[in-house]
Amino acid sequence: MKDIKKKMIELVEVNNSNQVMILTSNLKIDGMFEYCSPKCKGEGDELIALSEATVCRLNDYCTCDENSCECNDYMCFKFQWLNINTNKIVGFSIIKED
Question: Can you give the pTM of this predicted structure?
Answer without folding.
Answer: 0.80
